[in-house]
Amino acid sequence: MSILHPFSKSSVDKTGQNGSRKPAKNKANQDTPILEALHIRKEFPLGGLKLFGPRRGVKAVEDVSLALRPGRSLAVVGESGSGKTTIARLLAQLYPVSSGSIRFRGAAVRGTRGRKARAYRRHVQLIFQDPFSSLNPMHTIRYHLSRPLRIHGHARSAAQVERQVKALLERVNLVPAEQYIDKFPHQLSGGQRQRVAIARALAAQPEVLLADEPVSMLDVSIRLDILNLLLRLKEEDRLALLYITHDIASARYFADETLVMYAGQVVEGGPSEEVIQQPKHPYTQLLLLSAPAPEQAEEQHRADSPLLATRGDPPSLIDPPKGCRFHPRCPYAMPICREQVPPRTDLGAGHWTHCFLYGETTRLGDLKPARPTKVASEE
Amino acid sequence: MAIKQRDAQASFQGQQGVGALRADEGIRAELLRRLAKRRANLSLFRSVKIRIGLGILGFFVLLAIFGPVFVHQDPQAFSSDVLSPPSAAHWMGTTQTGQDVFAQVIDGTRMTLLVGFAVGALATFLSVVIGLTAGYFGGVVDELISLVINVFLVIPALPLTIVLAGYIPVRGPLPVAVVISLTGWAWGARVLRAQTMSLRKREFVEAARASGESTFRIIFAEILTNELAIVASSLIFTIIYAIFSEVGLEFLGLSDVTVTSWGNMLFWATNNQALLLGAWWWIVPPGLCIALLGAGLAFTNNGIDELTNPRLRDASRG
Amino acid sequence: MTNDAVLEVKHLSVDYGSAAGAVHAVDDVSFTLRRGQIFGLAGESGSGKSTLAYAIARLLRPPAVVTKGEVWFYPRSDEASDGKAASTAPVNVLGLTPQGLRAFRWRRLSIVFQSAMNALNPVLDINTQITDVLRAHEPGMSRKARQERALELLRLVGIAPDRLHSYPHELSGGMRQRAIIAIALALNPDLIIMDEPTTALDVVVQREILAEISALRDRLGFSVIFITHDLSLLLEISDQIAIMYAGRLVETAKQRALYHQPRHPYTYGLLHSFPKLHGPRQNMTGIPGSPPDLRAVPAGCAFNPRCNYAFGACQHVQPRLMTLCPAEPEQQVACHLYDPKMGPPDLPEALSGQDALIGNAAPAPQKESAHEHSSSLF
User: Fold this and answer.
1) Measured between alpha carbons, how far is C378 from C372 in angstroms, rounded to an integer?
2) When you count CB atoms within 10 A of the terminal residue's CB, does the N or C end of chain B come out lower?
3) Average pLDDT over residues A190-215
């Protein structure tokens, strides 16, 4: 497992890091986040001329903060429309945030174009969901892998490029490399293409890898292989991994920490095991009750939860509900939920949530919300 | 056998979508399957079409390059055989002034092809640069460029060409070429703009940005490479348009009529009432050549997809 | 749920293309569907599950062609909705004439497609689309009767009646899928084929739709062929599950039996490809390699290059589906490990009935696969 590889951290240290703003004073501290999002918001403007009234937009992400640390993986779990994909793209700076800031190694990141962007992309790379469309059908694998090497200056001569391309293919288990190097994407299977996408991301020698649903479109039997590959790379290179998914079971398998999102807001977060076994926010509980879990199918109590009786759909993001965006569907909603966005409540052991059911006080005074009897986790 | 395998592959991949599980992949896969199936079904014919098309083009190109070597008569030379039908001495007869039609046809090939291809290339180059820029950047840039494209589209090309050609003091192939290029690029630009707008949303473009590619390379190395089929097709159409426009202008006498070319031959022929006099041999050869060249180009167009799409390249080999 | 059969598929084979270059999308598949049963068909890409469903529904188009086999349909003995008693003679589906097919389709068998957005006409409202189906198949129905039936159907699937005149784009994904189910139920069919009906939906909505399907089945008594790549869904909703691989049926079993004792190594591997929400966290691997390209299916057992337990016979002889125990004729597996004539080694612990998934037996080897099996493509 500990093959000394041209792309493993130790050799990167030797060749030195170019492009970072601040000189690396000491080895990356485990707990210091390498990439942080602080209270980011993103609103996509809707087209059309609006002369009167407020401008309409899709409020895709609302006040999200997260931190990625070297050698650790963070999962962001949510359904479609939760804003999780937008988060990945914001962190990759494919478009700018509407407000809030993103910090890489403590320094604010600005600019989505030009040299600054390129320097940033040397450190933070994104893997896309669809292996069929994230590779250009007109270019060979060699081209796909050699471009980042050249852009970020990791290889100059043709011989160097060739050698490193082969090394990258070997790293993602596409061996023998010669067999893949001249192929076009349509000649590879879905799993192979996704490996190429991962290799392309690694070619930049990043410190942070953002994976946007990397296995959702792959066959079930090969998903674990890809996830295990990412975990291995995380260990070898001490990468900070962001794993976006709608499958909470794979978040449990893959990530140390999990964040749950709903309609653009973060509702709960903490160590994966903690969040999944002791979910506090009603949405997290609903998600866990809904996820297929054949190992539990025999137990009937799942059917009793009032959460499952609620019908409803995620709200429109153009005109989202005021306050907590889950309140229209929440069986435990209180008047305050319709008025204010719940602040963060720490639940201990790094587990936190945004829910008035757990808040101690509210702005309306010393009103302590009564705890419904069934809110506690199912086991 | 090979075709059936292609059928199976194309259809099957469409039907099952190797590895694809996404919901909307269904319709895309379905369309690809139908497209592939249609191509597969036509492939037998299409390879004949390409062969015909390229054959014709090749013939004319060779004619342009080597033709005059085999013609021993000066196409401009007058002779005493006025308006005589095809004979042993003059294979295609002579004109009103005794010039050898056959020599003129051969000689004129060069001129026609040169102007046609040059103009086609220039106009296509313009449409690529303008169309891709407008399509990729969007916003204000797109609005301005679209305005320009629309103006050029709306202006009726041939009348404008005639008017311009009529007013430019210098007569000859060069002004004709310039004028035709200026009126011929807009349609291609529009098509490429639309195609670019659709392609720029594709994930591999975003992935290239996320890799750190520069804008220039994204436009020309990532997006353009996926539009090669359209560009090539547009090139061929523009060449056809150029040739016919050029012939049209020459026919109206707006080019330098002393130069030998098919269009000019038609000009002189109509001016001298060739048909009325029954001199079909003056009109038919150049007309036929023009028509054949156009047909050859059109046939070639059909084969463009295979040449530029690596996916179909495999299929045709199998 | 009575025990009589509603659908019998016998040795069905579907090829794409013909003669030498043919791709065997479905290879000799046989199974029986009982009345009121939810029959799950699981498989990955290239498994042939969708092709099989389309073949049964007579929806295949050239170059897909059924090369072998029979499909027998046994209608219910109740009246058709126009009041006339329907024939209860077994129907040879593959032999139906175009008129017979018209009568058969939707009245006896209907389909729910994967993406409702693709199946619904975006320019017609839901009411029109439901009544259109009714008008096509029940010409005797009055306009009022059609309206009533449309409302009744929407109520059945849980769409509020005030959405009757909504257009598809005005409905959420879950509601669209319900609308599709309503249309499929319009003529009270005996059998509904559902091809990945919940793949495009959120997990929460998916659970609602599954519950809806189950409830409707309980109420109306139709059978379902539920096609999906997500085996964990089938483990919750279906009565009988069949696993397909490379166009062949490799195992069928009752839901609980499949989960507690998977017989085929592929089933075992598939069950182990889903990370668990509860229970101990452990390293998992999927199945090494990837599903084969149907143009180059491995000789013998299609699964053998990826199988941990393959032995001599597996590369040469294609295993046939066989019943393991006479008392359970519908538990079948196509694997040489269970065929004493092939001289198999001892049954591996994983497949011998120990409850591996609840953490008693040792799971499969834990390393990441050594290398991608490129041989399957080239």
Assistant:
1) 12
2) N
3) 94
